[in-house]
Specification:
Elements: E1 2-7, H1 14-17, H2 20-27, E2 32-37, E3 50-51, E4 61-62, H3 64-77, E5 84-94, H4 97-103, E6 108-113, E7 118-119, H5 121-127, E8 130-133, H6 143-154, H7 164-169, E9 187-188, E10 191-192, H8 202-220, H9 232-244
Parallel strand pairs: 1-2, 1-6, 4-7, 5-6, 5-8
Antiparallel strand pairs: 3-4, 9-10
Helix pairs in contact: 3-5, 8-9
The chain binds adenine.
């Protein structure tokens, strides 16, 4: 997957995108990041990219000229077929695992990072396909949101994570939170790993894990249970959990 990132601050991406799994994904050619610095497209001799909002008010607005020129430049690279454009803004649809999984099927995505008070609406009307938010709070710009998006989309791409079962079992992909995990030693500072995990009884371990997943979800994110397809065994486990609480 190729991410074309339009930003005023490409340097913000350097360390997070070049560490650990995302670095390896780039080395393996599974993802590629291209950066377009909005300032490089300014025709103003001072490299100006923003201006005061019409109608007054505080803050500055990214002006249309550098962004139109940047999009048209990228469009030419794609021989007039601009890939899907995502604009990161608190006004967007809130990102979740389902959206990340869907986006991972795209071959190319253009990510537009806003700053200041926003972007001239004509840019959004002309080029943007989706507005995405990463949560109901305001960031200083879209760069952190774009990095969150790149991270969670990339790990859905085949080959990026070593073990494909890892993504299938984890929190959210089945609408349940994960069960607790333990590793060696079996006793640490007097704290014991649950006996069942040392029993070698795979059927009972799977049942214990399912119950712990259900319990975690019920306690921490009961809203998620609304969307889960519960088996009759799950319902039985939930009854046991409710009685034990
Ligand atoms: N830009 C500023 N705040 C944001 C948010 N919460 N999500 C996405 N982009 C943003």
């Amino acid at each position: 997957m190729i991410f074309d990132i339009i930003t005023l601050f490409p340097e913000m991406f350097e360390s997070p995108m070049n560490t650990s799994i995302l670095r390896r994904a780039q080395e393996k050619g599974l993802i590629k990041l291209n950066f377009y610095n909005i300032r490089d497209f300014s025709k103003n001799k001072h490299g100006q990219v923003d201006d005061y909002p019409y109608g007054g008010g505080s803050g500055m607005v990214l002006m249309p000229q550098p962004l139109f020129d940047c999009f048209n430049y990228i469009k030419e690279l794609y021989e007039d077929n601009l890939p899907k454009v995502i604009y990161f803004t608190p006004q967007g649809t809130v990102l979740n695992q389902r959206i990340a999984e869907e986006m991972a099927h795209e071959e190319n995505l253009i990510l537009l990072c806003g700053h200041y008070e926003g972007i001239d609406q004509r840019v959004i009307d002309t080029f943007v396909d989706f507005e995405l938010s990463i949560g109901d709070y305001i960031l200083t710009g879209g760069e952190l949101a774009a990095m969150v998006f790149i991270d969670c989309v990339s790990r859905q791409i085949k080959g990026v994570l070593g073990n494909p079962e890892a993504t299938a079992e984890e929190s959210f992909s089945n609408s349940l939170l994960e069960y607790p995990q333990y590793t060696r030693p079996a006793i640490y500072e007097g704290l014991k790993v649950p006996d069942i995990l040392l029993s070698g009884n795979h059927k009972e371990i799977a049942k214990w894990r399912r119950k712990e997943s259900l319990k975690n979800t019920l306690i921490k994110r009961p809203d998620l249970l609304v969307d889960v397809d519960l088996s009759s065994e799950d319902r039985q486990l939930l009854k046991e959990i409710e009685n034990e609480l």
